[in-house]
Structures are given as structure tokens and as C-alpha cells.
Amino acid sequence: MSKILCIAALVAAAACGTAHAQAPVADYYSTTSKLNDAALPAGTTIEAYDGNGVRCGFAVANAAGEFLVHVSGNDPLTGSIDEGANEGEMLTWKLASADIMPGDATWIATLVGLFADLRFENGAAKEIRLEAEISGVETCTWSDVKAAYRR
């Protein structure tokens, strides 16, 4: 009887430790990105896209204008579904929903990884700088929106 209990305990313990593959991910961060020649305002959205236009990363700038974007790679276990960047694929970026021109997305440093550029690579940590000029953007608070609606 004790052998059966011991075997049952080992089977249960082995089932708890089943390993599952993790989808690829890379981190991109910035302390120097700019919007309209000034540090990113708090709340500015940052988006990363793969070569097929699939949004694979999203973040919001903090009060100091800094951000960290976790960019998802394409999960090899999902077959033909494209939910992220492929290894070595060049990423494109948006600031506050505005497209970033390739020359305005700059690689600064690779802390972890091999590519010295903006390409996606699983497990990488890269410092980047994004810059955009957006004209005609008027910022307002939720109170401003409610007041305008009441008029």
C-alpha cells in the first residue's frame, strides 16, 4: 500500500512540474524619446509592429517621459497564426498613434542580444530612441471633454 501511495505522489508531483514553452519576447526601453522636440509627455502611447503590421508591443510613457515595451514574438506553437514578430524581423513604431519614420527610430544599445539594431530577437533588451513631430494635436483633460459635450 505504501508503494502505491509513493508512486501516486511521484506521479502527482511530476504532473505539477510539466514545462510549457514560453512565447518569445524582447524588451525595448527609452529615456530619451521625443515628441515635438520635447521629452515624451506622460501618457504618450508607444506601439511596436511586426513586418505584417501586427501590433506586438504597447506601452505608455511615465511621468519622466520614459517607457519599457515588451514586444511579443510569434509563438511557434500556434502554427499559421501571426501574433508577433519573427526572429530577426525589423520592427516599426508609433508614438501617440503617429507612424515613426525609419530614420526617427534609433537603436542606442543592446544590453542583451546579438543584433545591434531594432530587429526583434527573443530575450533581447535594447535601448532605443523614438522621435515624432505631430502638428495640430490639442491635449485636453476629461473635464474639458465633458464641458464641451454639455455646450
From the structure above, extract its key features.
single chain; 151 residues; alpha+beta; 2 helices; 10 strands; globular
Fold and architecture overview:
This protein has 151 residues and is of the alpha+beta class. The chain has one domain (27-134). 16% of the residues lie in helices and 32% in strands. It has helices spanning 2-16, 142-150, and strands at 25-30, 34-35, 38-39, 45-49, 55-60, 67-72, 92-95, 98-99, 105-112, 125-132. Strands 1, 2, 3, 6, 9 and 10 form a six-stranded mixed beta sheet that branches. Strands 5-4-7-8 form a four-stranded antiparallel beta sheet, with no helix packed on it. β4 and β5 form a beta hairpin. The longest helix is centred in the N-terminal third of the chain and has 15 residues, at 2-16.
Q: Give the count of helical stretches.
A: 2
- Average pLDDT, rounded to a whole number, is 83
Q: Which spans of ≥5 residues are poorly predicted at pLDDT below 50?
A: 8-15
Range of helix content:
10-25%
- Distance between the first and last residues' Cα: 80 Å
List the domain count as a whole number.
1
Structural class: alpha+beta
**How much β-strand is present in the residues?**
25-35%
Largest sheet: 6 strands, mixed
For the secondary structure, the number of strands is 10
Apparent shape: globular
- The secondary-structure element order is HEEEEEEEEEEH
What is the alpha-carbon Rg in Å? 22 Å
